Structures are given as structure tokens and as C-alpha cells.
Amino acid sequence: MKKEFKVITINGIRGAIAAIFIVMGLIAGFIVSPGWVCMQLWNQAIEEFNLVVSTMNIYQGIMLWAIIALSLYALNNKRALIGFGSYKGLSPEQVKDIMSRAKDSEDKILKQLEAMAKEKIEKEEVSLMEENITKNEETDNEKEKVEV
């Protein structure tokens, strides 16, 4: 069963104008109108309670509406990353497992550091031995020259 859906069809300039009006209506209905309501409520609260704060314009009302809407979305979303008092501690088995893995990795790191230190010491010893050999050869050559 093959169904063909035509969700939105924009044909010519009339379709483009219709699409623009649809988008503008959605923006006005879901963004500007609630922003205007927030602005009016804020300004009424200032007058009502004689608060010494500035009044809001429409842009600030839209931003306040965006803050409210996004906060409600984040708090009501089941997959939200925000959680209050929802931390469940690790079980003792999990803690022991983590500690044993940390100990194992610490032992591996220490062994690697010891091996690196031994290699460095061996290289330094070899280079010192080579320097001593060359110095001995030079002193032997100087003694031979003096004897001759």
C-alpha cells in the first residue's frame, strides 16, 4: 500500500506569500504574543507594588517568555539533564570494583615508570663508560707521544 503525502506544496509567488504568512502567524502566536503578555504582567506588577525597577519593552518580554518556556521544557522533559535530588549512590560492590581497577592501573603505571627510570640509568652508565674509555685512550695516546 503506497501512500503519497503532500505535506506542503509551494507553487509560485502565491505559495511563497502563503508560506511567509503561515510562518509569521506562528511566530506571532507562539513567540510575540506570550512575550507581550509577559511584558504587560511585568509592567503591571511594577505599578501595583510600587517597585523601583525599570519597565520592560517587547524585546525583553520575548526574552522573559523564552526563559520561562525553555525552563519549563527542561524541567518537564523526561530525558532532561537537570535533576534535583535524583543522585543514587554507588553500591559497595561498584566502589570496590572501581578501587581495584584504579589500584591495577596505578601498579601498571608504577612498573612503567620504574622501567623507564632503569633504561635512563643504563643509558647514562653506558655513556659515562664510553666517555671514560675515550678519556683513557686519549691519555694513553698522550703518554705514548711523551715517551717517544
The total of beta strands comes to 0
The general outline is elongated
Low-confidence stretches: none
Radius of gyration, in Å, reads 39 Å
Mean pLDDT: 85
N to C succession of SSEs: HHH
User: How many helical stretches?
Assistant: 3
Structural class given helices, strands, pairing?
mainly alpha
Helix content range: over 70%
Report on the biggest sheet. none
- Beta-strand residue percentage: under 5%
Taken together, the total number of domains comes to 2
How far apart are the first and last residues' alpha carbons, in Å?
111 Å
Task: Describe this protein's structure.
There is one protein chain. Helices cover 76% and strands 0% of the residues. The protein is built from three helices and no strands. It has helices at residues 12-49, 58-76, 92-147. Helix 1 crosses helix 2.
